[in-house]
């Protein structure tokens, strides 16, 4: 270790299922300087000025780039650049410059029970509504095989789910196709209201313990469940995960009108690791080396599998169920170590883009989350007009 070097300050993405495990993996493999880990929430704050290396949601790369928070990286500074999936690399570029190293991917998916052919074959949101129906139960927990489990209790989550349903035009593809601003996009609000109707207000608006909805679903409650793919972290570990054979997963079906838009793929959130600009050359070289180590294939694979189950009642390998964006890790036989990677990887192989917001939308994001949540969940919101459904193209 270089004892005379000041510690490198690192802010990892705090919303992984087990961020402390990732910190311990990184610290164990780093022998150049001391590491000082700090907590930072990219959803509410700019990058800490003291952070030499910081990880964040890709939604904000355009606004962070505009504010000059991210140092540009040369292609030869990123180790095994060709190992990274092209869509993830595209998401790490802005203004023709590479500003970050991609790490893990995640998106919201629809969980359903293996063998539920109706849910598996639903082509549109209208099909899903017909299959699931409007919730007719009271309380938080749906009856067995009835209704949709979803969480609209938090403004941040509600806003992300809203953004995932915004429609884009071809010129917005470079930003990941998500649309912000006022007035809110009517179709995106309406899509989420339709999910709320399938879920029931008592369940969708309940503030529950982390992982409670996915546990209920694995125990038989609800017909399907809409949430981020890594939520299955809260289910038992590999040695006892019969649920991995009992559940399947797909993307939420589009609205009929989406067949006529310029959608180029599902939107994935690929966490990005950037280096602070303005570092003196020696310190910058260390920061880039650390970012490469953190986002490199060995640590990406190790980081997926925390060393021990979360409770003594569980056995086998626990898994964070993030999606790696390195080809070498995807070739490592992940389903053999964590069986639910099988269906997740089928979803991940579909056309995809990195979800990003235009640079001007950072202030909209910070100021509008409560308004978005109210538009989706308020019983007396103004009705949102939607075009009549068109037939599928033949």
List the defining traits of the structure above:
2 domains; 16 helices; D-Maltodextrin-Binding Protein, domain 2; 15% strand; seven-stranded mixed sheet; four-stranded mixed sheet; disordered C terminus; 13 strands; globular; single chain; 394 residues; alpha/beta
Task: Write a structural description.
The protein folds into 2 domains: 8-106 and 266-341, D-Maltodextrin-Binding Protein, domain 2 (3-Layer(aba) Sandwich), CATH 3.40.190.10; 108-263 and 343-377, Periplasmic binding protein-like II (D-Maltodextrin-Binding Protein, domain 2, 3-Layer(aba) Sandwich), CATH 3.40.190. Strands 1, 2, 3, 6, 11, 12 and 13 form a 7-stranded mixed sheet that branches. The chain has 394 residues and is of the alpha/beta class. Mean pLDDT is 89; it is low at 170-174, 308-316 and 383-394. Helices cover 33% and strands 15% of the residues. Helix 6 (155-164) packs across helix 16 (362-377). It has helices at residues 19-29, 61-66, 86-91, 117-121, 125-132, 155-164, 186-199, 201-204, 212-218, 243-246, 281-295, 297-304, 327-330, 334-337, 341-348, 362-377; strands at 8-11, 35-37, 53-56, 93-94, 97-98, 101-106, 108-113, 144-149, 222-228, 247-250, 266-275, 323-324, 352-354. It contains 16 helices and 13 strands.
């Amino acid at each position: 270790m270089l004892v005379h070097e000041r510690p490198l300050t690192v802010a990892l993405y705090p919303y992984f299922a087990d961020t402390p495990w990732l910190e311990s993996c990184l610290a164990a493999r780093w022998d150049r300087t001391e590491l000082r880990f700090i907590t930072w929430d990219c959803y509410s704050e700019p990058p800490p000025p003291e952070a030499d290396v910081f990880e964040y949601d890709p939604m904000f790369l355009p606004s962070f780039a505009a504010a000059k928070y991210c140092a540009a990286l040369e292609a030869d500074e990123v180790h095994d650049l060709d190992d990274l999936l092209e869509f993830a690399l595209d998401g790490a570029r802005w203004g023709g410059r590479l500003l970050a190293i991609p790490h893990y991917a995640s998106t919201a998916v629809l969980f359903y029970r293996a063998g539920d052919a109706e849910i598996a074959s639903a082509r549109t949101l209208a099909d899903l509504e017909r299959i699931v129906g409007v919730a007719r139960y009271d309380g938080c927990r749906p009856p067995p095989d009835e209704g949709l489990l979803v969480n609209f209790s938090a403004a941040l989550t509600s806003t992300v789910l809203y953004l995932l349903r915004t429609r884009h035009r071809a010129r917005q593809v470079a930003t990941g196709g998500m649309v912000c601003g006022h007035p809110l996009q009517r179709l995106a609000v309406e899509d989420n209201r339709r999910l709320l109707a399938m879920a029931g207000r008592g369940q969708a608006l309940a503030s529950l313990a982390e992982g409670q909805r996915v546990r209920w679903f694995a125990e038989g409650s609800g017909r399907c469940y809409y949430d981020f793919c890594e939520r299955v972290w809260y289910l038992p570990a590999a040695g006892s995960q019969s649920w991995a054979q009992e559940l399947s997963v797909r993307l939420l079906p589009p609205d009929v009108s989406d067949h006529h838009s310029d959608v180029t793929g599902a939107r994935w959130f690929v966490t990005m690791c950037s280096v602070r600009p303005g570092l003196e050359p020696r310190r910058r070289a260390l920061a880039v080396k650390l970012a490469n180590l953190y986002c490199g294939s060995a640590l990406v694979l190790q980081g997926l599998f925390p060393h021990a189950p979360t409770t003594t009642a569980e056995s086998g390998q626990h898994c964070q169920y993030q999606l790696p964006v390195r080809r070498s890790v995807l070739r490592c036989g992940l389903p053999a170590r964590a069986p639910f990677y099988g269906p997740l990887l089928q979803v991940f192989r579909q056309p995809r883009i990195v979800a990003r917001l235009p640079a001007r939308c950072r202030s909209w994001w910070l100021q509008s989350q409560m308004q978005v949540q109210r538009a989706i969940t308020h019983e007396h919101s103004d009705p949102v007009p939607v075009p009549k459904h068109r037939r599928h193209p033949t």
